[in-house]
Amino acid sequence: METIFTLEDLLNYYYNESSSKEKEAILKALKSDIKLKSEYEKLSSTLAKLSELSLEPSESSIEIILKSAAKDQHPELQ
Amino acid sequence: MKKTSLSDNELILGYLAGNDSCFKTLLLRHKNKVFSTIYAVVNDRYIAEEIFQETFIKACNQIRDCRYSDDGRFNRWIVRIARNMSIDYLRKAKNKPTITDSEGNDIFSYLIIKQDSAEDSIIKREDKSNIRNLIKLLPVVQQEVIIMRHYGDMSFKEIAEATQVSVNTALGRMRYALLNLRKMLIQQEMNVQ
After folding, report:
1. What residues in B contact A73, CB-CB < 8 Å?
2. ipTM strictly over 0.90?
3. What pTM value is reported for the model?
4. Which of A7, A52, A69 sits opposite B131 (nearest CB)?
5. pLDDT for B94-129, tens place per residue?
6. Which of A21, B115, B129, B180 is the most exposed place for a label (fewest CB within 10 A)?
7. What's the CA gap between A39 and A20, in Å, rounded?
8. In chain B, which residue's Cα lies nearest the Cα of A64?
9. Do A56 and B174 touch (CB under 8 A)?
């Protein structure tokens, strides 16, 4: 079967941004289209590599912001 | 009602009514999007932390001064503040006068080298892949979309809004970023073998 989905479609699917109709069509195609399945596996493995890293603000930054928010809200505490 | 089920606007009203924990919920809900937006621009963890703090403190001040008005789209509003502050930072950094040593070398370059080395050592210590370094090798617009989509959990529509491009452009950039990353990973594996 000929692949009709692009890498952009697969990206939307991976990140759960496809419409339910597209999602259903891609899911069906992945079961029968070997080329598409292989493309999706390559995409997933690259994205899995990205997941080895996490990019979040530190706890100390969160604390600094919360302290500032509370201090400004309750100036009597200063 | 649980705070986590409240809308952003309800949390803002709660904070204005004196409930600090509403602000905490708002912060925890949006922290990754905001942080990744900043990191995507400045590409430096230490600077990103500083701008992240400034962004939320500024947002907090504007909320308390009743200067928040973005038709209930807090997410879009705070991402815009974060991005503008990051771009301002880069602009100011670019305009800083150069201080040279006796041999005419920019002393700021030493600091940058030191910073990169420190970051590299952290990556090694954590025994993670050097994916962070590979991302840094991508064109800036591709780094930006990867960081915002994958680490900031922003939708392609949100990324398009934040970076002022179409959704198709954001998707296309992500596509090329992943193709480039894949090539680099394959090349790296070949080098190891």
Report:
1. 15, 18, 20, 23, 64
2. no
3. 0.76
4. A52
5. 776 555 555 555 444 444 434 445 555 554 444 355
6. A21
7. 21
8. B53
9. no
User: What's the CATH number of domain B1-96, 1.10.10.10, 3.40.50.1820, 1.10.287.110, 1.10.1740.10?
Assistant: 1.10.1740.10
Residues of chain B with CATH 1.10.1740.10: 1-96
> What pLDDT does B98 receive?
54
DSSP chain B: --GGGS-HHHHHHHHHTT-HHHHHHHHHHHHHHHHHHHHHHH--HHHHHHHHHHHHHHHHHHHHTT---STT-HHHHHHHHHHHHHHHHHHHHHHSPP-B-TTS-BHHHHHHHHHHHHHHHHHHHTT--THHHHHHTS-HHHHHHHIIIIIS---HHHHHHHHTS-HHHHHHHHHHHHHHHHHHHHHHHHHH-
**Inter-chain touch B32–A56, beta carbons under 8 Å:** yes
Chain A positions touching B57 (Cβ under 8 A) are 65, 68-69
Residue in B with minimal Cα distance to A50: B131
Span A40-59, average pLDDT: 91
Cβ pairs bridging A and B (under 8 Å): 105
pLDDT digits (tens, 9 = 90+) for B136-179: 899 999 999 999 999 999 999 999 999 999 999 999 999 999 99
CA of B84 to nearest chain A CA: how many angstroms apart? 18
**Where, residue-wise, is CATH 1.10.10.10 in chain B?**
129-193
Mean pLDDT of B26-55: 94
Beta carbons of A50 and B131 less than 8 Å apart: yes
Q: What class is the B129-193 domain?
A: mainly alpha
Q: What residue of A is the nearest CA neighbor of B135?
A: A50
